[in-house]
Amino acid sequence: MKLTYEAVSDVGRKRKGNEDSVFVNPENKLFVVADGMGGHAAGEVASSIAVDSINEFVCATGGDEEITWPFGLDESISYDGNRLKTAVRFANRKVLEITKEKTEYEGMATTVAAVLVDGATANLAHVGDSRIYLVRAATLSQLTSDHSWVNEQIQSGIISAEQARSHPLRNVVTRALGGRTDLQVDMQSREMEPGDILLLCSDGLTNMLPDDEIGSLVSQAAGDVKRAARDLVDAANARGGEDNITVLLIKFEE
Ligand code: CA
Predict the structure, then answer these.
(1) Range 245-254 average pLDDT
(2) How many angstroms is it from 76 CA to the middle of ligand 1?
(3) What pTM value is reported for the model?
(4) How much distance in Å is there from the Cα of 132 to the middle of ligand 1?
(5) What are phi and psi of 143, to 5 degrees?
(6) Other Cβ atoms within 10 Å of 175 Cβ, number
(7) Residue 64 has pLDDT above 80, yes or no
(8) Residues forming beta bridges with residue 197, ordered by sequence position
(9) Is the pLDDT assigned to residue 31 strictly greater than 80?
(10) How many angstroms is it from 224 CA to the middle of ligand 1?
(11) How far is the CA of 146 from the centre of ligand 1 (A)?
């Protein structure tokens, strides 16, 4: 399938720096959003190490060369699924290495939402509270489930999604790169249809805008991913822009 995409990362209206990273490798059909944490420059460092390391591993495994899988092979998922899953775990190891080397980076971490496309199949990986949505026939559905404290509360029926978006602990992630060596990466694979749009985003979008507004803005752009990306960022800023806002839209066409 033919892919068109647009990536925008915006500092927002309250933060001094942008700790999000967004990355596209069109040749390998790799798309990544990472949201760094750790204060000062550390968050920026964590998210950029993550996207660089994921790309490094995906590029190194793109040919037909013999590969050593550093964390073993997962038989339950495809080759490309394994490439992406291992790339995220490889990136986790890199973030942890840098954390140990330099005290100013102690405690830094990052989320990852990543897509690796093979034909009509989209392999999805995520860790943390950056999300992947599917927009199909003007309907938005969230494909990933946040690894966050507020999501655990929602799942337990203690708070609503609406309350979660403004909860004081909304930024607490329960899983991130830079946490532990045996990182669990949530994987899934989806068959894409012509006209489908995948949206990868950081919580600077989803804490500002409810899902129905995100869905409307993408649908109103009528397949124009550039316009959709700009409209989403503008809307999140208009609503306060309290965090860095990153959106990456990928449209699938025949
Ligand atoms: Ca964020």
Answers:
(1) 97
(2) 32
(3) 0.97
(4) 15
(5) -90, -25
(6) 19
(7) no
(8) 135, 251
(9) yes
(10) 25
(11) 13
- Triad 192, 4, 123: Cα angle to 5°: 40
Tokens of 223: 């397949």
Where do runs of H (alpha helix) occur along the chain?
Answer: 42-60, 79-101, 149-155, 161-166, 203-206, 211-220, 225-238
Ligand 1 centroid to Cα of residue 245, in Å, is 7
What pLDDT is attached to residue 41? 79
Say how many Å lie between the CA of residue 248 and the centre of ligand 1.
Answer: 15
Ligand 1 centroid – CA 246 distance (Å): 9
What whole-number distance in Å separates Cα of residue 64 and Cα of residue 21? 29
Asked if residue 201 lies in contact with residue 224, where contact means CB atoms within 8 angstroms, the answer is no
Going from the Cα of 165 to the center of ligand 1, the distance in angstroms, rounded, reads 12
Instruction: Calculate how far, in angstroms, residue 202's C-alpha sits from the geometric centre of ligand 1.
Output: 6
Neighbours of ion ligand 1 (CB under 5 A): 35, 202-204, 243
pLDDT in tens, 109-130: 999 999 999 999 999 999 999 9
What is the number of helices (H) and of strands (E) in the chain?
Answer: 7, 11
User: What count of residues does the chain have?
Assistant: 254
Calculate how far, in angstroms, residue 124's C-alpha sits from the geometric centre of ligand 1. Answer: 20
| pLDDT score recorded for residue 39 | 74
Q: What digits encode the pLDDT tens for the residues 214-229?
A: 999 999 999 999 999 9
- Token pair belonging to 244: 């860095």
Quote the ligand 1 centre to 203 CA distance (angstroms): 5
